[in-house]
Give the backbone structure.
Amino acid sequence: MVEEDSVRVVRCGGSELNFRRAVFSADSKYIFCVSGDFVKVHSTATEECVHILQGHRNLVTGIQLNPNNHLQLYSCSFDGTIKLWDYIDGILIKTFIVGHKLHALFTLACAEDSVFVIINKEKPDIFQLVSVKLPKSSSQEIEAKELSFVLDYINQSPKCIAFGNEGEYVAAVRDFYLSVYFFKKKTTSRFTLSSSKNKKHAKNNFTCVACHPKEDCIATGHKDGKIRLWRNFDDDKKYTYTCLHWHHDMVMDLAFSVMGTSLLSGGRESVLVEWRDATEKNKEFLPRLGATIEHISVSPAGDLFCTSHSDNKIIIIHRNLEASAVIQGLVKDSNIFTGLMIDPRTKALVLNGKPGHLQFYSLQHDKQLYNLDIIQQEYINDYGLIQIELTKAAFGCYGNWLATVEQRQEKETELEMQMKLWMYNKKTQGFVLNTKVSMPHEDHITALCFCNAEKLENPTLVTASKDGHFKVWILTDDSDIYKKAVGWTCDFVGSYHKYQATNCCFSEDGSLLAVGFEEIVTIWDSETWELKCTFCQRAGNIRHLCFGRLTCSKYLLGATENGILCCWNLLSCALEWSAKLNVRVMEPDPHSENIAAISQSSVGSDLFVFKPSEPRPLYIQKNISREEVQWGVFVPRDVPESFTSEAYQWLNRSQFYFLTKSQSLLTFSTKSPEEKLTPTSKQLLAEESLPTTPFYFILGKHREQQDEKINEALESELVQLPLTENIPAISELLHTPAHVLPSAAFLCSKFVNSLLLSKETKSCEETPEDVDMEEEKESDDSDVENDFTEKTQDTNDTDLGEDIIHQLSKSEEKELRKFRKVDYSWITVL
Amino acid sequence: MGEFKVHRVRFFNYVPSGIRCVAYNNQSNRLAVSRTDGTVEIYNLSANYFQEKFFPGHESRATEALCWAKGQRLFSAGLNGEIIEYDLQALNIKYAVDAFGGPIWSMAVSPHGSQLLVGCEDGSVKLFQITPEKIQFERNFDRQKSRILSLSWHPSGTHVAAGSIDYISVFDVKSGSAVHKMLVDRQYMGVSKRKCIIWGVAFLSDGTVISVDSAGKVQFWDSATGTLVKNHLIANADVQSIAVSDQEDSFVVGTAEGTVFHFQLVSVTSNSSEKQWVRTKPFQHHTHDVRAVAHSPTALISGGTDTHLVIRPLMEKVEVKNYDAALRKITFPHRRLISCSKKRQLLLFQFAHHLELWRLGSTVATGKNGDTLPLSKNADHLLHLRTKGPENIICSCISPCGSWIAYSTTSRFFLYRLNYEHDNISLQRVSKMPAFLRSALQILFSEDSTKLFVASNQGSLHVIRLMEGSFKHLHTFQPQSGTVESMCLLAVSPDGNWLAASGTSAGVHVYSIKHLKLHCTVPSYNFPVTALAIAPNTNNLVIAHSDQQVFEYSIPDKQYTEWSRTIQKQGFHYLWLQRDTPITHISFHPKRPMHILLHDAYMFCIIDKSLPLPNDKTLLYNPLPPTNESDVIRRRTAHAFKISKIYKPLLFMDLLDERTLVAVERPLDDIIAQLPPPIKKKKFGT
């Protein structure tokens, strides 16, 4: 079924949504945001991703609506192309090849056939604003080489460029000056602020710029938190400005409302400020937005704002300053101490998120599921503060338990540390704090692992610490006369010659515990906590330690700091083999014997997949990333792949994800990127121009059907409708929050009807004799339909839901037919 | 420069009074400033903002309004209900007219300058006709319910806007009836205040009325319909003053928080004629209420309770970088308030209503350069002399021997004899002053304390011989025929032969005391004289002008000296010409004839005429004398101007003897500490 291309490293979502300003569609129904090489189309009402516009081969750096056709979207990328999309259908219309690396894109209504881009031509940090003439041609790929220069020596960020008064002028800021270029006069005025060298503590560097949509007024944001409103800037001498000052730190972005009556500003305070009439005294606030506001944009219809935040989220805000939706991507703005983990229940990727939180991130849907507040303290965002850091986390007992370690070290001797154990609560579907251990060790905890053996009567946790001890914690009964409770207590403390304990690892069956003490590996019996044996290779401190699995469970693997990978045989207590490999990441696959190791060299990182039983690697991929790879994890596949080639067999059961130093989440795939991520709900797109709110799908269609009954003329059009409508009805039913759904009695008929493959109107009048004939017809229909979908969507595991619907067995269909015979007309009366 | 022992005096407890009104006259480029004690000062903006004239205050004459009328006539009105016109030549009050409407809160001159309008406590608006000699009551406008706090004429002269409490009235001048009554919102940041006081109104030629009020609002009204057009909330406290430029393209308002806001009329887009008023820049140069603002073509002028007069140039209007292009802050009067008796080491301080006599402390300790020496004897407050009556002291002087004190108010002249018996001091008033000695603008004793020179406000100079307990009038120098200008500055030569006197604008006259006649007149110069002194032995007259030029004129030769010609030819250092405040005192070293000692408020300078003059490339403000550098370098970098900026603000500095200087400082912080507390403002991060 799957063609075996070569395995390639691909990005797998988790890209920055806050890289550029988000853009609203003209009717405010959709919001577009850049996401790595893609453009994502989200619904503003439901936060759902409707489309992913794929086609760029490098980072997308700018998106703008086509001013001449608001159903089209321009995007530009580092790959040197400008692409025009039909965002409603998710279709690429045209590609304009410019050839330079494009840093930002601007469109103007008055400049019909040209757009503006920021390029750097010669020197690496000298950027130019140029206008690109987009030639009219019917072909798909067009060369657009006609560039005309507008402004030189500008800032590369698109926040520092703004077009004003219907394209009469363009304002650019950089360092300490504002330049305004007037297109008609072809002159540039430059206004310079006295630089910070002249005045003490005056950090008045420009940071961003916005132009008033109706008046000749330019708003600039500054590093010291001031906003200046410039007027009369067409006169070099009589120019004047007003200051607005509320922010205490850098103004990150500015935006005017559509009519220019209010100005929005945001910064590190995480407060959206609305300056009404641009006066200092008349301002409104939307506080507690969670993270630094990076970008602000305003919908062309004027009813919505949105803010992009440094924690990779987009908040859609209503005109009355109420946050209405949050689009949250993978949080990336903190150091990853916990590494990558897989939540055994949700199969979500778990890692450090917001400060003090663990984030649960769905790899399939590229969105954050939820945040678990571990530290449970107010986060104070200020320079120089030493924060409590969440340093370790581990899941145990099939996701029933979560152990976390947090620490804060102000001085060398003052270590504050807490270990928390969280129990999964089935009722609330979340983790609840069970046990809090303050100072579980005297020094930093270096490793944390649960015993994940299948038949384990007592959950066991082992912590290893720099203080030279490892501690075994077990769950005990903590009940008293008031309630039944369980809690964790320390069961055993082990040490080995006062060496620092650096790693710990349980064998697959839980019978053995391996603890690394600097250069020495010790093996302990988990029943009696007796030291069984030690291994020492004198090759540097142990950096990674893991047991083999399944058939290879008799092997123990250790990677040392001096670049030696050792494999010990536990039965013979001898070194089986060793290899010279500078291992950075070593991860065992939970579903196979395979172990993945990533080594670091000066040119890049290499991946080795091997079985502990044999020193020959199964698979080698050189240079998977130029950067240092920090963490990796195997994620079990829901549906196993069936690679026949021996080299790719390690990808059958699980998929390997890894995180580089710049925090890009990458994986290995054989599919081309176009296939890789398919929109989960391609059919959700609105074929009609009616508003596609959830209510529309349920109520709008219902009304339509009623209309149909009266208006026979439209009957023919309806032939296709029930079929195409099938998926939306169900998916909407599943996606709509429960509190906005109509009553179940009402939905029932709708749902059942949607499963039937016949025409609604006919079925009501038709006689039972026609059933057979119709049946045939319908099955034909559905076959055709099936083919059709296959053609358009390619084959995909995500379309499973659809397949199931079409593969209704005959008996099921008959059952449904019975339902149909029941008179549901009473529902309409309701 | 030489080493001196310096008496650093900081016990002059002088607090200037707050500024109440400012009025700018465009034709003469002069600014009239009235203070809360009733003093009115005239600043010449063309002459580096020099305070060239002043009218002493009066306890009962609190000025509430000040305005210029046609032909450089200055009127003021106050809470005693009188309208006063000042005589700018003789420096006295021409006449006072009671308006019979209770205290007067506001006054405005019609655009043509022929009519005067006053707003009174009883709610009446009274129209006066300005005649060449006096003012004539014409009629009342419709009487309003409460006091009229502000008035503004429409530039055409047909309508008048009057700000009262809670509302603004628009009057038709012809009929005198109120055309519109515009009620002002009392709401203040959502809280209803008791009253909303309209502190200022401005009528623009397009019919817009701008009002500022106690709720912190600047509002724009359409006077044709009587409706509110736009509202700017700019302060949490009162907005107390407003001034509009002549072109009506910008105006300035002052708030009780000490902030001055500039509003400008800017076009909405470059290609449309539509314009809007935009608040542009705030200026925070004051700590207290800004009670008065003025708008000159090139600068915003503001003054208030914190006693500073601030002149903030509009950079876009300034064509060339000159003296006008910098921010100016005028705090101290440009005249001497301190006189010194060298023989007895006494200082006489002049306050508005009293005089203080102090004996300087002394020390026996010695120390290195820059050391602070401990006092063996503290300074002594010898005398506190209160004036009788409500009038302020105009001038005062103590004789060099320390046994005579003379001072003058507007109506009386006082002369006292001091007797010292060990530590006791007795004061004896010299009675029976002659009738012509009623009011003096400047008093000076001769070096040997035998003669008293008095410049009266009629332009005449009286010479009086002093004897033990009595006096004799020797002579009166009458002013030149045709001029009535008063003399404000006097200088006498140490040998007692020559007397130099200068008026506000004309040249310096030199009289021979021996022959009791005019000796010569120094050629007149465009800028007013700020300080005068005659050098011992050579009898060279040194004159400092408000444009920072210094001339040396030889009285015996009746011509400028060679040194003066040289420095005029070469020109002064550009930094010297850019200095902020005028030179207020000149003195000489008895043993070093080549030295001229002079000071302004921020520096003390010794000009050594024997050294080369600095050119624009040399460093004017040399640091403290370098000790480690070789003599060669020191000689190469040395120039005629030795400047010390250690003492500031410096009100007085003189040489007591060859090795001792006395410097009287008045730190600004001490003045602010004596002012009422400013409005508390929340400052971020505190």
